[in-house]
Design brief:
This protein has about 200 residues and is an alpha+beta fold. The chain has one domain: Gcn5-related N-acetyltransferase (GNAT) (Aminopeptidase), CATH 3.40.630. Helices cover about 20% and strands about 30% of the residues. The longest helix has 14 residues. The radius of gyration is 17 Å and the shape is globular.
Length: about 200
Amino acid sequence: MSDSLDRINWPVTTRRLLLRRLEIADAQATWEYRKLPEVQRWITSCADDFPQYLEQFMEARRYACDVAVQLLDAQGRPQLIGTVMVKVKDGWGQREIEDATRGVEAEIGWSLNPEYGGLGYATEAVCGVIDLCFGQLGLRRVIAECFAANEPSWRLMERIGMRREGYSKRDALHRDGQWLDGMGYALLAEEWPARFES
């Protein structure tokens, strides 16, 4: 349901960032930080080189669910520093009412250039995307998942007020061959501060 992001009036600004749809032309900029070992360790897929990465990037328009996170550089030009995934999907409902579950929640995830870590940009970007989910998209629930060992990720979820709803033991196979614990967080629209656009 990546077409759901077409309903947003892009670009969107936060206090320090510009959020917009990720485009094919952004592949090189995202590769520059996603190729780093500390980033590849946690993202869903990694690549050995840019051609392989570009193939993954283009595969089934994977980039279409991502929001580009940009920061203005010293000259006022926007510089891509990360992405936030927004996959709008159906909730669960009993058969007689399942039509009411269509496109009511989103799974989010993020990947940011570690060069910009520790400055609050990830928090600001994710909050901006949640504003969009509960505001312009009118969703009722947002979820996020991560490996339990990815402490910066789940700490961000807790910092912005997401609720831990699950901790699973060794349910996810990491590319290093180990089965790792996982964590799941969620947030309902009524739990989010009323700061998004109506």
